[in-house]
């Protein structure tokens, strides 16, 4: 945006001190390096997530498809950054740009704004789809579904504001000749900024919501404290995305008033950080099976010959509980305590683990292999309690009920253990 008097002032400064080289000064390389690094890390995380889902868990969920769409948006953002740099404006002083170059830059920036907007919303929708796979109550399910509907409607409304900023003459968003000639009437800078700040405020609220929403769900899982703390810490990266969103909103308030706004490009830089950190926070929990497998391989290489290496079997479809695994036994110092892993095509969902394993989770299946008979003490209710120790999640089905005689144990069930 060319402000009257700025161009002449800069040219006079350049003439007075030729060493400043204001005209050729560029910050584009640093900006592209930053954005390219963020994009590369985010894409690698999504690729590893798909590897875990397809080759280790043998199943891809709706949240994975949505995250792939967000990754496509990430690639689109980097393409737009490259186009903006090629136009000669990104990282440079806009007052020194030729009108034709500035028009090309704004054309790229128009699509850039749309792509990153959809990408951020897709990350949140992916988190909501992930949580819907194992939340225990219908109320929670309805809340998440309502959040998805709200995000879709909110994103479309924001996109509509951006697309129709100049009415039906969409090309006026980058072709300023249409504005100066009176062929198109667009929002004033003040109006456009106020709309943007309102949208950013809603965006910050949803960022905080989806950063904190997984915490109570994870904390209610019947697993050990170490696992809970690890998952909550990873998901807590979403709070950093919230911080980036707040900083972005502050930068947005003064972006259109800054005559040199493209040199540091602060608003879009923080917008991009929010987007890619969101991808990381949403995808890292799904990589837990891969990390555990790597740690298991490291332990086997470093363990002595008289120690039995810990077996890190497969996980179930959520990626947080054990599923497929090989028939191995891990012995502890107490010979009465042994942990088993048995192959099966089925596993219990985290929702069932949260409520306790029961007949709903352990259905008869003729394909399941014969496992180990184990006796579990339960209470008077109809649900058998799954005792989770060191991340081992028992999965099996009821074989028979034996009513004890005398006093003491209230009820005993014999369970066919198919896998951990």
From TrEMBL:
Keywords, ordered alphabetically: Membrane, Transmembrane, Transmembrane helix
Stretches that traverse the bilayer: 31-52, 64-90, 110-131, 143-164, 197-217, 229-247, 267-287
InterPro entries: Rhodopsin_dom_fungi, SAT4-like
Domain of life assignment: Eukaryota
Cellular component terms (Gene Ontology): membrane
Protein name: Rhodopsin domain-containing protein
Keyword Membrane: yes
Cell compartments where the protein resides: Membrane
Species this chain originates from: Capronia epimyces CBS 606.96
Broad class of the protein's primary localization: membrane
Stretches assigned to the Rhodopsin domain: 48-292
Lipid bilayer topology: Multi-pass membrane protein
Coiled coil, from the record: none
The keyword Calcium is assigned to this record: no
